[in-house]
């Protein structure tokens, strides 16, 4: 495509963030205007479309309906998810998979993790939170910087996990422009941590934010191509399920970065959790990204401001700039141990505060991170971390498991595990 207005781009974090912000905002505005439409006209289209969805969600909430789609794992495995269920899932961009694992299996994994960290004297050795991404109160951590327990690896390489990841990945368009952007049937086993929040815990929760990137979303060439329809006046063609140009580009480093491309973020419940006990909320509208990306271009935002988004902090979704979207924030329904929860990678999410929590709040974070250029590069680092029992490079360098003899061993990898770590099949 030839355009009258090419966008400047920065493949690494610009030295002068404010200058780059001024420059890119002016360039995107000019590019939109080259289409014959103004930014204000585009904004009208976006807000009209989103207002309709927000009102639909508000009405469903007011009727006491469950806004989150719920799909039974057995239907995924049997291929009997209906077209209506699929359409609803795509409309909301998030889902609870019921019975993803048998409840007893999940409760056993939860106990196995406790045994694993206790056997290895984790609580005696724990040095406190190494980052402030998740706050921690009290003497025991809620987020365990533990990546290589047998329980986590068994879940990551299980057929049930592979089936769900594949099902979710196929909701995306992964072939276009003569290229396959990712392999929907091969996951890269992105290792993440565990949360165990005990009964009686009080937590301030986590503010609404999104995780796919920060200023790089506007400033790198790959993201500019991925969001091309938002930046060139053809916003009606923007498709949040199109993976084109998203799976190979660079990202600006930061303490909260996720190096891989995830189609969905997710976690698997290791305890039963009631919907009012400090659980995950989302704005279940995948198209909301259009609003988030275009809002800074309006003229009530300072020229050097991206509505508060900057490097090294999560992308905030806030009442001041995103009031329409915040009206649609909605929590998950009650879940049981063994259910899993998934949300589109661009989706606004938060964790509600809780006081004197009833029951446990235990999850293991396992997303869908299908094989692609970016994820293959990170898999090299993951494999090295796995072999050494180290913290993966996206996370603080805590390395508690280096000396733990009973961490998951390479000999225990199955075919899915080996493929996910970029290792050759066992010969
Ligand atoms: Fe997040």
UniProtKB/TrEMBL annotation:
InterPro entries: Gig2-like (IPR010856), IPNS-like_sf (IPR027443). Residues 389-427 are annotated as: Disordered. Residues 396-405 have a biased composition (Basic and acidic residues). It holds the Pfam family Gig2-like. Gene3D superfamilies: B-lactam Antibiotic, Isopenicillin N Synthase, Chain. This is DUF1479 domain-containing protein.
